[in-house]
Amino acid sequence: MSRGDMAKPLLGHQRLEGDPSTPAAGRTIGVLGSGDFARSLAIRLVSSGFKVVVGSRNPKRKAGLFPAAAEVTFQAEAVKKTDVIFVAVFREHYSTLCDLADVLAGKILVDVSNNSEINHHKESNAEYLASLFPASTVVKGFNVVSAWTLQSGARDGNKQVLICSNNQEAKRTVAEIAQVMGFTPVDMGCMSSACEIENIPLRLLPAWKIPIFLALGLFLCFFTYNLIRQVIHPYIREQKNKLYKIPIEVVNTTLPCVAYVMLSLVYLPGVLAACSQLYYGTKYRRFPDWLDQWLQHRKQIGLLSFFCAALHAVYSFCLPMRRSHRYQLIETAVKQAVEKKMNIWVEEEVWRMEIYISVGIIALGLMSLLAITSLPSIANSLNWREFSFIQSTLGFVALVISTMHTLTYGWSRAFDENQYKFYLPPTYTLTLLVPCTVILAKVIFSLPCIRQRLLRIRRGWEKGRYVKFVLPSATGEFSSGETSSNV
Ligand code: NAP
């Protein structure tokens, strides 16, 4: 079975989630253990219309913790009353359940356990449970949902329940129970997938590693550059102590650089992919692995870019609140009074600032839109064209507006000799490099001769092969949701 097939829900769409009319509803479900998970599971099962019987080593003491509708009894008593038993006990204590092997024979055991480390044991917990109870059928499932998710109802938290087992019938039964509880069962195949399922809750943001390192790397480079220009240069050349600038000013000149460059890095791989397609005259040639990886991380890179842009907005908003800023204002006012300067209004400066703040706000607004529509729940409500329009067209507009924001901020500083500290050009000039390359490439790709060729390639035309084409008038653009084969 392919991975795509495995990701499909086990049950068809005709049954509503939590529909009490399904055959699973109303049956008796057993739960071994009376801890956090067992309690939340029992509450959810009861509210989904199941009868619940809990098996505890000490039922008298634990009964008060469960809903009144759930029966709490000794372990052996509980498992006798049902065919499906959730084992809500840690792996370390599985062996203490061995006395129940006879009563558990022929029954379905649902292993919900997790480990504390990735690949902690040689065999998965579910396989270990199956080896202890060979006469029972073990199904791995529900370990990716937390006790909190179970209690918070169908609307909150992760809705997917990954299920695997060597027994199709048992898997179907557990999937049906999950669906009645309001979850979406996902078939992960046979028991050999249990290890993978058990590792899922332990992974720490796997898709975010590369984008986070990229953002940190860029932050470090720009921070050092700005530190040299804003703090070290005045100290060495004029013996002025500007260390106070580090926490806010230097950070605030670094954040927009990272945000802007990261935003352009969302669109650069699409440009490189288009170059490759144009060069080889086909869309069927695999991209190099690094480009493939880059294309797959665009969403995370874009979200980190938005995060830095949002922080930049907050920092900028707070700039006038600083004590240093107030002192500088008073100092300037006093100087002007001493020099008897009356008119300090510089028309050009006023316009520059009005424009760059305004376009900055628009750019941030557009980036918020990109970030919101990249959330799965929102993205799922859009069709492909809407998603592509927002992520591709509006995303590119956000990049162009961010470039206007940078240019109006920098204005003529690139041509001012005094701005070259230690011969280092102003930071904004460096940040323009990648975004301007992307914008230029996009403009070139929009030239009719190149655009037509790219469109033909993306519809399957290949250099050196004769295929008659009638091009529709529909527009084709790069989309953040595309895979390497259809960028
Ligand atoms: P817990 O609060 O510590 O409960 C474990 C339960 O195991 C105890 O209440 C105990 O119930 C029972 N047990 C049976 N034999 C035992 C023994 N020999 N020694 C100690 N306890 C024994 O743990 P939990 O958080 O509910 O987790 C239970 C299982 O669910 C674990 O495998 C965990 O990985 C999995 N899980 C938990 C969560 C979560 O959010 N908590 C999420 C996903 C998966 P009695 O005293 O009544 O027998």
Question: Would you write up a description of this structure?
Answer:
This protein has 487 residues and is α/β, with parallel strands linked by helices. It has two domains: 28-202, Rossmann fold; 208-459, no CATH class. Helix content is 53%, strand content 7%. The strands form two sheets. The chain has a six-stranded parallel β-sheet, sandwiched between helices. Strands 7-8 form a two-stranded parallel ribbon. Helix 11 (246-280) runs parallel beside helix 19 (433-445). Mean pLDDT is 90; it is low at 1-20 and 473-487. The protein binds NADP nicotinamide-adenine-dinucleotide phosphate. NADP nicotinamide-adenine-dinucleotide phosphate is lined by residues 33-38, 56-58, 62, 88-90, 93, 96, 112-114, 143, 146-147. It holds the Pfam family Ferric_reduct.
Coarse morphology: elongated
Number of strands: 8
- In terms of DSSP E residues, the strand content is 5-15%
Bound molecules: NADP nicotinamide-adenine-dinucleotide phosphate
Number of helices: 20
| Count of distinct structural domains | 2
Mean pLDDT, all residues: 90
Class computed from helices, strands and strand pairing: alpha/beta
Report the sheet with the most strands, covering strand number, pairing sense and barrel closure. Answer: 6 strands, parallel
- Rounded to the nearest angstrom, the distance between the terminal CA atoms is 26 Å
- Helix proportion range: 40-55%
